[in-house]
Amino acid sequence: MFKNQKVVLKPMTATEMGKYQIQKSTKVVEGMKSSLHILTKKKFQYENKENGVIYVVIMKEVDMKDVGNISSIRKEVVELLNDFSDIAPTDLPSELPPLYNSQQFIYFMSGSQLPNLPTYHMNLIEYVELK
């Protein structure tokens, strides 16, 4: 029960999944309410059988002005958030950090013998150029 309404979790069938994949790029999926399905029906049944426990996360969009108002949040949720407050920082950046291109280079001395290892193998043109 969620807000006095019965919630039934139904995984997507293969045809619904195909329809979703086709229409996903337009961000419009006909016949579906605002929901997110990550698992196929078969995978969902397998996971349910293996684990026996299913966790559901229901999210709601909130205005930024209401974020500081904890009185509107249920007591159980506040306790849960307080228990795990050390997991994430309180102020998150508004963007992802830049990607750094980490490459390693090995410089060979002119006239030195190349190691006979698969990672150092190169074609004949590159070998002559390196010499």
Index terms:
131 residues, mainly alpha, single chain, 0% strand
What does it look like?
This protein starts with 13 loop residues before the first helix and ends with a helix. It is an all-alpha fold. It has helices at residues 14-23, 41-51, 75-83, 124-130. 0% of the residues are buried. The protein contains four helices and no strands. 28% of the residues lie in helices and 0% in strands.
Q: Number of helical segments?
A: 4
The topology string of helices and strands comes to HHHH
Shape: elongated
The average pLDDT score comes to: 71
CA distance, first residue to last residue: 74 Å
Helix percentage: 25-40%
Instruction: Give the strand content.
Output: under 5%
Oligomer: single chain
Low-confidence stretches: none
Main structural class: mainly alpha
Radius of gyration: 27 Å
The overall strand count is 0
The major beta sheet can be summarized as: none
